[in-house]
Amino acid sequence: xxxxxxxxxxxxxxxxxxxxxxxxxxxxxxxxxxxxxxxxxxxxxxxxxxxxxxxxxxxxxxxxxxxxxxxxxxxxxxxxxxxxxxxxxxxxxxxxxxxxxxxxxxxxxxxxxxxxxxxxx
Length: 121
Known about the structure:
Helix content: over 70%
Structural class: mainly alpha
CATH architecture of the largest domain: Up-down Bundle
Order of helices and strands: HHHH
Number of domains: 2
Number of helices: 4
CATH topology of the largest domain: Four Helix Bundle (Hemerythrin (Met), subunit A)
């Protein structure tokens, strides 16, 4: 992969990481706690608890993405960015455009998903 392309992916990854950080800061400022006394009835309480649960799930997903972004940035530094972790082939530019944190080429990812689907059934 050309140095110019790698720099472009690095810029994209850094921007996504910055956006995640800003979103986390925003959620932190909004606060996650609430006082039951502030909620007039059980419906409001249930709604608020559901909202908190959803926010926590989103935070978990963002944490996973944060780790993948950092791993991709490390790969850029090591010179292994864009190489499939399973077969060692180059990951297509089209796939990296769609998912710059991709660790597997499309063929290996599809095989992995078939295996996962088999276990889920």
